C-alpha cells in the first residue's frame, strides 16, 4: 500500500476569495495561479473544523469544465492531508450538481459510509475553457450549499491564511475507471472511490416518477422529443435516462457529449444561448422548422437549470414551477400524498402565489439562492420551489434539478394524454400552459440582463433607485411622464427576508417597485458572474381578463419595460442602450 506524508506549504492571502450564493467563481487564469485554489480549499477545511473533517467522507466532482481534472487531484491530496478518511469521485470527474446532492444524501459506500459534504467544481451556466470561468462550492451533509455562517467563515479564513496542508507521495487518482484505491497516511487509511454517478441519480428519479407512463408517451409516434445538454454534464445523465431507461431515440439528444469548453458555447439554457434547440423547436427568427417536436428542453453546464419548450412555444420558468405545482399531486407519484408547501425566489413571477392560494398551500417568498429553499425543506415546510433563472426543484434533494424538471413536465404530459395516445391530437405543452392561464390568470414576465457592466456604475444605479423610493409621489410623477397608462406605484422597498426556520435575516435582496394593478419592477445585482457586475431587471404584469391573456409578452410589457429603463437611468449609469440577454 502506497504511503504518503503531509507537507505544510507556506502561503499568503489572495484578495477577493469571497464565495457568493454559489461558491467562488473566477476566471481559470485566476484559479491556476500558484496556491490560489489551495488557499480556498484549506480555508474551507479550517472553517468546517477538524471535528467535521477528520475521518469524513467527501464527494469531489463537477461539471467537467476546463481545470476540473487538475482541481480534483489537488483537492483529493489536500483532503488526505487534512485527515479525511475517503473521497468519492464521479467517473471522469463528472457529477451534476443535483446528482452530488443526491449522492451526499442517499449513497451508502461498500463499507456503510455516508458522505459528510462535497466540493462541487462548477461555474454553473458560465462559459468554460482556458480563458473562461471556473468555480468551487462546498455543500453540507444535507446535500445543500453551505449556509452564510460557513461561507463567511471561509472568507475570513482566506484573509488570514498562512499555510495549507497537502499529501506528498500520493499518486494522482485514475478517475477514468471505477474502483477503490487505498493509501496509508499519518492519520491512517485513505480511500479514493471512483464510481458511476448516474446509478444513484437514476435510482432516485425512478422512485419519484412513473417511468412506464413516460415511456408510453415517448413511444407514441405523435410525440417528438428533443433534449439539449449544451455539452454540459447533463448529457452524461440524458443518455442513461431518456434513451436507456425511457426508450427515447438517441437522435433526440443534442450536444450531449460533455466538453471542457462546452463546445465553445455558453451553457445557459435560454432562448439566446440554446440556439440549436430553439431552431429545432420552431422558435428561431432566422430559421423556419417545418415540423418541430412536441417537447424540447435544455440544461446548463452543471445540469441544475432547465428550459422547457413546446412546439413553437416557450414556457417561462415562473410559469413552469407554477404549472408543476398545480399538477404534481395528480401526475407525479412522489407527491401523491399532497404538497407540504411551495416557494419561489422574490424576483420570480407571482404565478406560483396564485396556485398556492387556490389550492390552499403554504407559500414562501425567499431571496435568490437555493439555500433558502433548503432550510424550508429540511424543516418539512416545502415540497416544490423555483426561480425565474431557469431553476426548478423539490425536496428530493437540496439543489435545483434540471433533469427532474424535464421528467416532471413529461409526467404532466403523460398524465394529460394517458387516454389520448391513440387519438388524433395530443394535449400539447402550449395547451397545458394556456389552460393554466385560463384558470389562474397570466403573469406577463420578462427579465433584462446587463452583463459585465462597470461595478461602480451598477452600484450608483442601485443607490439611485433606493433614493427614489423616499418619495413615491415623485416616482409616480416620473412614471406618468414616461407612460401615462402605466399603473401607480403603491410600495417601494429593498426586499428583506426573515427565515421562518432559523430567524436569520437577509437584507438588501433586491429593489422592488410594486404597482396598484399587481405589476412589479425588481432590480438586482447578481453575484453569479466572474468579473464586472450584472444588473438584472425583472418586469411583471398580471392579467386576469381571459380576453387579454393571449398577447405577445414583450408587446404587453413594452410600457413597463420603458418605465424600468428610464426610471433607473440605465443608459446614464451603465452606458448600455440594450440588455445583453432578454428572457
Q: Any idea what the radius of gyration is? A: 24 Å
> Which residues form runs of ≥5 with pLDDT under 50?
none
Number of strands: 27
Strand content: 15-25%
What does the secondary structure layout of this molecule look like, with pairings?
Blueprint (H helix, E strand, L loop, with lengths): L1 E2 L1 E6 L13 E4 H4 L4 H13 L1 H4 L3 E6 L5 H14 L4 E5 L6 H10 L10 E5 L11 E7 L8 H11 L4 E6 L10 E7 L2 E8 L2 H11 L2 H9 L5 E4 L5 H12 L7 E2 L20 H6 L14 E5 L6 E5 L2 E3 L1 H15 L10 E4 L5 H9 L3 E4 L3 H9 L5 E4 L3 E4 L7 H15 L12 H12 L1 E12 L1 H14 L3 H11 L6 E6 L2 E2 L6 E2 L4 E5 L4 E7 L6 E11 L9 H15 L2 H5 L6 E2 L1
Parallel strand pairs: 1-9, 4-5, 4-6, 5-10, 11-12, 11-13, 16-17, 16-18
Antiparallel strand pairs: 2-8, 3-7, 6-7, 9-10, 13-14, 14-15, 18-19, 20-26, 20-27, 21-24, 22-23, 24-25, 25-26
Helix pairs in contact: 2-4, 2-6, 5-7, 8-14, 11-12, 11-14, 17-18
Organism: Nicotiana sylvestris
Keywords: Carbohydrate metabolism, Glucose metabolism, Isomerase, Magnesium, Metal-binding, Phosphoprotein
Family: Belongs to the phosphohexose mutase family.
Amino acid at each position: 500500500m502506497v504511503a504518503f506524508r503531509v507537507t505544510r506549504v507556506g502561503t499568503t492571502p489572495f484578495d477577493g476569495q469571497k464565495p457568493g450564493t454559489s461558491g467562488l467563481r473566477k476566471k481559470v487564469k485566476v484559479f491556476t495561479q500558484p496556491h490560489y485554489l489551495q488557499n480556498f480549499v484549506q480555508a474551507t477545511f479550517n472553517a468546517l473544523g477538524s471535528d467535521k473533517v477528520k475521518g469524513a467522507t467527501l464527494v469531489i466532482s463537477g461539471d467537467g469544465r476546463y481545470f476540473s481534472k487538475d482541481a480534483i487531484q489537488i483537492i483529493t491530496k489536500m483532503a488526505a492531508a487534512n485527515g479525511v478518511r475517503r473521497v468519492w469521485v464521479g467517473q471522469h470527474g463528472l457529477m451534476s450538481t443535483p446528482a452530488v446532492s443526491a449522492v451526499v444524501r442517499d449513497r451508502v459506500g461498500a463499507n456503510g459510509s455516508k458522505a459528510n459534504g462535497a466540493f462541487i467544481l462548477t461555474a454553473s451556466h458560465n462559459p468554460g475553457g482556458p480563458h473562461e470561468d471556473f468555480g468551487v462550492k462546498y455543500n453540507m451533509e444535507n446535500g445543500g450549499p453551505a449556509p452564510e455562517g460557513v461561507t463567511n467563515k471561509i472568507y475570513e479564513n482566506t484573509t488570514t491564511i498562512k499555510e495549507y496542508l497537502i499529501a506528498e507521495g500520493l499518486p494522482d487518482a485514475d478517475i477514468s475507471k471505477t474502483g477503490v484505491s487505498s493509501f496509508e497516511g499519518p492519520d491512517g487509511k485513505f480511500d479514493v472511490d471512483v464510481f458511476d454517478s448516474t446509478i444513484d441519480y437514476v435510482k432516485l428519479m425512478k422512485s419519484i416518477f412513473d417511468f412506464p407512463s413516460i415511456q408510453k408517451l415517448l413511444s407514441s409516434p405523435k410525440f417528438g422529443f428533443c433534449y439539449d445538454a449544451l455539452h454540459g454534464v447533463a448529457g452524461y445523465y440524458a443518455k442513461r435516462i431518456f434513451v436507456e431507461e425511457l426508450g427515447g431515440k438517441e437522435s433526440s439528444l443534442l450536444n450531449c457529449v460533455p466538453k471542457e469548453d462546452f463546445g465553445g458555447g455558453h451553457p445557459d439554457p435560454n432562448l439566446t444561448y440554446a440556439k440549436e434547440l430553439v431552431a429545432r423547436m420552431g422558435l428561431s427568427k432566422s430559421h423556419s422548422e417545418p415540423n418541430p417536436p412536441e417537447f424540447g428542453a435544455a440544461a446548463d453546464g452543471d445540469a441544475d437549470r432547465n428550459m422547457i419548450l413546446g412546439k413553437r412555444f416557450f414556457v417561462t420558468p415562473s410559469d413552469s414551477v407554477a404549472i408543476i405545482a398545480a399538477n404534481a399531486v395528480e401526475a407525479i407519484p412522489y407527491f401523491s400524498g399532497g404538497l407540504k408547501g411551495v416557494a419561489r425566489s422574490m424576483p420570480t413571477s407571482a404565478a406560483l402565489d396564485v396556485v398556492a392560494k387556490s389550492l390552499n398551500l403554504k407559500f414562501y417568498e425567499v431571496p435568490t439562492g437555493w439555500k433558502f429553499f433548503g432550510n424550508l425543506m429540511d424543516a418539512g415546510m416545502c415540497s416544490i420551489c423555483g426561480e425565474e433563472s431557469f431553476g426548478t426543484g423539490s425536496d428530493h434533494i437540496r439543489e435545483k434539478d434540471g433533469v427532474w424538471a424535464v421528467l416532471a413536465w413529461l409526467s404532466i404530459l403523460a398524465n394529460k394524454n394517458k387516454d389520448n395516445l391513440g387519438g388524433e391530437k395530443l394535449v400539447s405543452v402550449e395547451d397545458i400552459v394556456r389552460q393554466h392561464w385560463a384558470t389562474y390568470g397570466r403573469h406577463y414576465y420578462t427579465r433584462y440582463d446587463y452583463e459585465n457592466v462597470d461595478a461602480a456604475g451598477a452600484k450608483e444605479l442601485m443607490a439611485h433607485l433606493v433614493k427614489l423610493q423616499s418619495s413615491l409621489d415623485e416616482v409616480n410623477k416620473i412614471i406618468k411622464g414616461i407612460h401615462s397608462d402605466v399603473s401607480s406605484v403603491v410600495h417601494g422597498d429593498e426586499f428583506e427576508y426573515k427565515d421562518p426556520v432559523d430567524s436569520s435575516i437577509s437584507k438588501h435582496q433586491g429593489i422592488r417597485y410594486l404597482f396598484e394593478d399587481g405589476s412589479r419592477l425588481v432590480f438586482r445585482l447578481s453575484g453569479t458572474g466572474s468579473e464586472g457586475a450584472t444588473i438584472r431587471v425583472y418586469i411583471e404584469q398580471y392579467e386576469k381578463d381571459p380576453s387579454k391573456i393571449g398577447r405577445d409578452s414583450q408587446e404587453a410589457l413594452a410600457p413597463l419595460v420603458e418605465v424600468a429603463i428610464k426610471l433607473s437611468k440605465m443608459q446614464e449609469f451603465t452606458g448600455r442602450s440594450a440588455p445583453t440577454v432578454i428572457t
